[in-house]
Amino acid sequence: MEFKEIQTLIKLVSDAGVDEVSIEKPDFKLCIKKNEKQVTYTSAPVIHTQAAVAPHQPSAVSSAPVVAPVEEKSNLITVKAPMIGTFYRAASPEKPPFINVGDAIVPGKVLCIIEAMKLFNEIESEISGTIVKILVESGTPVEFDQPLFLVQPN
Hints:
By secondary structure, this protein is mainly β. The chain has 2 domains: 3-52, no CATH class; 66-153, CATH 2.40.50.100. The chain is 9% helix and 44% strand. It has 1 helix and 13 strands. The strands form 3 sheets. A 5-stranded antiparallel β-sheet has the order 5-6-13-11-8, with no helix packed on it. It is elongated and about 50 Å long. The model is unreliable at 36-63 (pLDDT under 50).
């Protein structure tokens, strides 16, 4: 398991509200335990490290994007990332993007893919409207609740 994957797993544990996660294979063991002040992880045979994290704040993680108004004065809606991972605009590098600026969207339309822990999650629209701005570059990491798109509602 790569160090970056371990960091991502620590972030998931912190955000998901779980207190402990263990992964055990014949040549590898990973245990992440969380308390109010720290997350500890160990990896057999060599690594034993402690990383400080923010105090536990429960949050719900779902595969539906979080939709929130941008500003009180603006009528644009911000579609936010429902999870942490890597943002992709298309199903593969050879395929066209799911959406572009100016495209009309309806509930159920796939907007993007977020890869988390080798799982590719299609993020679908919950609203109708027109894409005004795409706020994230394809292939970049995104955080939970990070703005992805600005939508002009219908």
